[in-house]
Amino acid sequence: MPQEQRNTRVFLNAPQSTGSFISAFLEPALIIASFIAASIAGGAPVDRSGIAMCLLVFALSFPGVNRFKQKPLNAAIDVLLSWSTLLTILALCGYATDSFKLFDERVLVGWGVGTPLLLYAAAIAGGAWLRREAQQPSARRAVAVVGGGPLGVRVAGALAKQHEFGVDFAGYFDDRIDDRLAPEARNRRLGSLNELRDHVLRHGIKEVYITLPLGSQPRIVQLLASLQDTTASLYFVPDVFGISIVQGRLQEIDGVPVVGLLETPFTGANRLIKRLSDIVLASIILVLISPILAAVAIGVKLSSPGPVIFKQKRNGLDGGEITVYKFRSMRTQDNGPVIQQATKGDPRVTPFGAFIRKTSLDELPQFINVLQGRMSIVGPRPHAVAHNEQYRRMIKAYMVRHKVKPGITGWAQINGHRGETDTVDKMQARVAFDLEYLSNWSLALDLQIIARTIKLMLFDRNAY
């Protein structure tokens, strides 16, 4: 997804629809209703343990996700991912508290199968209702964009996609002549800024999106003063498309509005969720793969002289240096100021090393790094310190990827950017996916990346 589209989505969430408010309560209510229905159908009473389950589910699922405007396939995938994540958390809680025996297995199975079907049906029905309501003349909202530049065109495009949900894009207002406007805006220019107020009053414009550059502050202030004499809702869209936004959001500090542009997704509860999931999954995986670890260690030792584990300095959270473990796959151990990346047919790689690199078995010791807190299971792949010093000067926002712990696997790797990055373009593409991961992190996304990584370990040919 292009960065400019992601930024439009981050900053163009206003206004909040009735559907958002309804979905906040609807999803947890439906999950609880499904549990009660499964209990009644299974002949099990909703006792204290059932009430405790309902309270826990409400706490974990509130506020619900608004899927009313999603495409059916996207809604189905989102429902399955979020429900699988919730079930995983409940299963871990049930195992830790030994509370599975308090519930009838038939009730749990019926609830597990019936809930996603109910949530998907609600998403489709809600979307159909919103579309039907949006066709009513009283529900239509005429909107105008101030500024016919590239930013205004992007905002207008985002608004046009909401047509079936009641948004009617009227056109642009700009003081510049047509030759200075973006080509898409020239034929839809409605007038100058001085004409905007009268047009809003005459034609019932409900919303105005101001996309003028920050350098036009005097004009913006004058425009706001004139529009406050109308009932139109006003939105200012900051021109931040030159910035790689991570977790962009509007916050406030003691009543002062602050726009967050670059922020780690792992703060507050998200930080706890990420760390707990890393500890639980890494512990389970290390126990399961312990025979593989022993076999690979023996293979490395027999393949060539040298240590089994290769320790390399990498940049971790906030750019600090960390030591990362790998099974040694080469005859040499480069860890200095100049490091040559492995290439296809690299003579430094041993035959056994080529095998474990191709299957990613050389990365398995990094689960120990995860337990140490140096790494996460999912995150941007760590590069050698020497490579970071090289690429931070060449790629914009390269170091932003270090706002989180590096990962054993990542969004870039499962999207084809695994293995050698022998050109700046390849590294730039990898960084773009890393930043997209930071902008859109969720536990469900982590689980999806882990599942797809397992598939790639068996079938991918891009690593060497």
Describe it for me?
- The structure is a single chain.
- The protein has 464 residues and is α/β, with parallel strands linked by helices.
- It has three domains: 3-134, no CATH class; 140-242, 3-Layer(aba) Sandwich (Rossmann fold), CATH 3.40.50.720; 269-459, no CATH class.
- Helix content is 49%, strand content 12%.
- The chain is built from 15 helices and eleven strands.
- Strands 3-2-1-4-5 form a five-stranded parallel sheet, sandwiched between helices.
- Strand 8 (309-315) and strand 9 (321-327) form a beta hairpin.
- The radius of gyration is 27 Å and the shape is flat.
- The two termini are 28 Å apart.
- Residues 1-18 have low confidence and may be disordered.
Termini separation: 28 Å
With helices defined by DSSP (H or I, 4 residues minimum), what is the helix count? 15
SSE-based structural type: alpha/beta
Element pattern in H and E? HHHHHEHEHEHEHEEEHEEHHEHEHH
CA-based gyration radius: 27 Å
Major sheet details: 5 strands, parallel
Low-confidence segments: 1-18
Tell me the domain tally. Answer: 3
Number of strands: 11
Residues in β-strands, percent: 5-15%
Helix content: 40-55%
Shape, per Cα inertia axes: flat
Q: Strands of the largest sheet, in order across it?
A: 3-2-1-4-5
Mean pLDDT: 82
